[in-house]
Amino acid sequence: MVGADGRYLRGDAEALYQRSRVYDRRANRWLVGAQLSLIATTALFIIDLHPGDGPENIPFPANQIQVGPVGDGVGLGMRVAF
């Protein structure tokens, strides 16, 4: 049952609702991160489709890409020369 202010009348039900909202926001952040990762992967794939400029199967040297833990997730670093 919900009170006039929109909160559940039972404390345990309200706590479960608030916890589910926290997990919902966390899931939304992960989904946005996954979508950004997909966009970045697609962009790198398209960039790598250059015709006849260099070796065929070496898109990026291994020492220019770094992957490591950052907080609760994973960080990706890439060095690009201009």
Q: Please identify the oligomeric state.
A: single chain
Report Rg: 22 Å
Note the overall shape: elongated
Sketch the major β-sheet.
2 strands, antiparallel
What is the percent of helical residues? Answer: 40-55%
What is the number of helices?
1
> Strand content of the residues, in percent?
5-15%
Number of separate structural domains: 1
Average residue-wise pLDDT: 82
Structural class designation: alpha+beta
Poorly predicted residue ranges = none
Strand order of the largest sheet: 1-2
Cα(first) to Cα(last) distance is 62 Å
Number of strands: 2
- Spell out the helices and strands N to C: HEE
Question: Helices and strands in order, then pairings?
Answer:
Layout lengths: L10 H37 L17 E6 L2 E6 L4
Antiparallel strand pairs: 1-2
Structural description of this entry:
By secondary structure, the chain is an alpha+beta fold. Helices cover 45% and strands 15% of the residues. The chain contains 1 helix and 2 strands. The protein has one helix at residues 11-47, and strands at residues 65-70, 73-78. The chain has a two-stranded antiparallel ribbon. Strand 1 (65-70) and strand 2 form a beta hairpin. The model has no long low-confidence stretch (mean pLDDT 82).
Gist?
This protein is α+β, with helices and mostly antiparallel strands. Helix content is 45%, strand content 15%.
Short key terms for the protein model shown above:
82 residues; alpha+beta; 1 helix
